[in-house]
Write a structure and sequence with these properties.
By secondary structure, the chain is α+β, with helices and mostly antiparallel strands. It has five helices and eleven strands. The chain folds into two domains: about 120 residues, Elongation Factor Tu (Ef-tu), domain 3, CATH 2.40.30; about 60 residues, Double Stranded RNA Binding Domain, CATH 3.30.160. Helix content is about 15%, strand content about 35%. The longest helix has 11 residues.
Length: about 220
């Protein structure tokens, strides 16, 4: 099991910073202050071990009764976004219910994976959705410049194959941007600056975890 403690954050937008050599670095600003442990998942009761973390406070009258009861039992105010992070059993004692997760779990230069919901593009054709070339705009071609072309078989199997690239709903999917580097951690302001772009619109929620592939590579190097 790959344990990756992380933080929930809100995407503020993109900007740029400069390193000591004067190189421009495009970064995404993530507001991550206010991550609070709202529950523990234990192997005896839930068959797995995890920390349930809440982020971004909301008013009680906008919280349904079941959720309000859970937050009240944890002794924290209701949260808009709740996620779970798989952790070793020792972390349950290190982060009791009601405690805040610090931004210091990420160091500058750390490699992270950022997961969010991509921007929805609605119904799109095959050229925008799958980057198809389209038909040539030459003599004899008639009103099929951006069509997808033939989608079926002749006789056998006589159907459209599952997963055929066609027009349809684009975006609004769970996307993980892997191996991004933490450019700067601003603990006093509650901000994390990540080198590059992350999924989703501004003010969207994302989860930030230590890179899974980087951890695997580090384990192989030790071995």
């Amino acid at each position: 099991m790959n344990f990756q403690l992380g933080l929930i954050a809100k995407k503020i937008g993109m900007t740029q910073i400069f390193d000591e050599e004067g190189n421009r670095i495009p970064v995404t600003v993530l507001a991550a202050a206010g991550n609070t442990v709202t529950a523990h998942r234990t192997a005896e009761r839930d068959s797995y071990v995890a920390l349930q973390v809440g982020f971004d406070e909301k008013s009680e009258h906008r919280t349904n009764k079941p959720d309000a009861g859970q937050f009240k039992a944890a002794g924290v105010t209701p949260r808009r976004c709740v996620r779970e992070f798989r952790v070793p059993a020792s972390a349950l004692g290190e982060y009791p219910v009601g405690s805040a997760l610090p931004l210091s779990i990420f160091d500058e230069g750390a490699v992270v994976d950022v997961t969010g919901t991509s921007k929805g593009k609605g119904f799109q054709g095959v050229i925008k959705r799958h980057h198809m070339e389209g038909e040539k705009r030459s003599h004899g071609q008639h009103e099929v410049y951006r069509h997808g072309g033939s989608i079926g078989c002749r006789k056998t199997p006589g159907r459209v194959h599952l997963g055929k690239r066609m027009a349809g709903h684009m975006g609004h999917q769970r996307v993980t941007q892997q191996n991004l580097k933490v450019a700067k951690v601003m603990s006093d302001e509650g901000l994390i600056l990540v080198h590059g772009a992350v999924p989703g619109p501004n003010n969207g929620y994302v989860t930030v975890r230590h890179s899974v592939k980087a951890a695997i590579r580090a384990g192989k190097n030790k071995g």
